[in-house]
């Protein structure tokens, strides 16, 4: 049990808040529920928290990384856990700033149970500035290959329906370089074996699949 420690839970989804609030309360937490970054900052200004559990995508306005940075600036030792469906903040916002030191990042599909989430918060309490926690979780293909920021940006633009000429103009590359980059992505993603479907559609599907936190084909769906 957590001896009445106060946890700030920030998620724009009402259902998620309705699940996490009672679940954490039964595990001894005093829970403050907020739907936005602005509401969270207002809450902690009045009632300081012992830990924060934050969604990455908070809808319009500041996201979970923005909130984590703001919270750490005001409360340098505050333990923070980001809980999200995105494998990495880069899938929400390419070129996103790194997370503050020690902010723990959990993909929802990797959470076995609410007890697992409770344990993650307990670990964050013990090690709020853990330097072994990566500042920006990497994105990997189903084959375990790491994707660069430029590759993720190309995937995002392909998923948005842009052609090679548009992508070249957006990223300051030649069309030939874009063509080669897309071909390399297709190989890395293991999509070169399917000759029946449009490869750009497959790249787009792979991007959205990773954005849902299902980067590996053997992962389970969101446990909620």
Polypeptide structure, described:
This protein has about 220 residues and is α/β, with parallel strands linked by helices. The chain folds into 2 domains: about 120 residues, Rossmann fold, CATH 3.40.50; about 70 residues, Arc Repressor Mutant, subunit A (Orthogonal Bundle). It is about 40% helix and about 10% strand. The protein has 8 helices and 7 strands. A 5-stranded parallel β-sheet has the order 2-1-3-4-5, with helices on both faces. It has a two-stranded antiparallel sheet with strand order 6-7. A hairpin with a 5-residue loop joins β6 and β7. α5 packs across α8 and α6 crosses α7. It is elongated. The two termini are about 20 Å apart.
């Amino acid at each position: 049990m957590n001896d009445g420690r106060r946890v700030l839970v920030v998620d724009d989804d009402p259902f998620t808040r309705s699940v996490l609030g009672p679940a954490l309360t039964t595990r001894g937490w005093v829970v403050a529920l907020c739907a936005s970054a602005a509401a969270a900052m207002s809450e902690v200004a009045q009632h300081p928290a012992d830990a924060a559990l934050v969604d990455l995508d908070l809808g319009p306005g500041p996201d979970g990384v923005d909130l984590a940075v703001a919270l750490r600036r005001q409360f340098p030792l505050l333990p923070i856990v980001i809980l999200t469906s995105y494998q990495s903040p880069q899938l929400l916002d390419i070129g996103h700033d790194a997370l503050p030191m020690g902010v723990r990042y959990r993909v929802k599909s990797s959470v076995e149970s609410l007890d697992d989430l409770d344990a993650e918060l307990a670990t964050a309490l013990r090690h709020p500035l853990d330097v072994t926690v990566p500042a920006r979780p990497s994105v990997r293909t189903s084959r375990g290959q790491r994707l660069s920021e430029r590759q993720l940006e190309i995937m995002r633009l392909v998923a948005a329906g842009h052609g090679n000429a548009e992508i070249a103009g957006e990223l300051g590359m030649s069309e030939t370089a874009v063509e080669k980059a897309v071909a390399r992505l297709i190989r890395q993603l293991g999509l070169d074996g399917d000759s029946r479907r449009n490869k750009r559609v497959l790249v787009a599907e792979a991007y959205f699949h990773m954005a849902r936190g299902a980067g590996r084909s053997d992962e389970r769906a969101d446990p909620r």
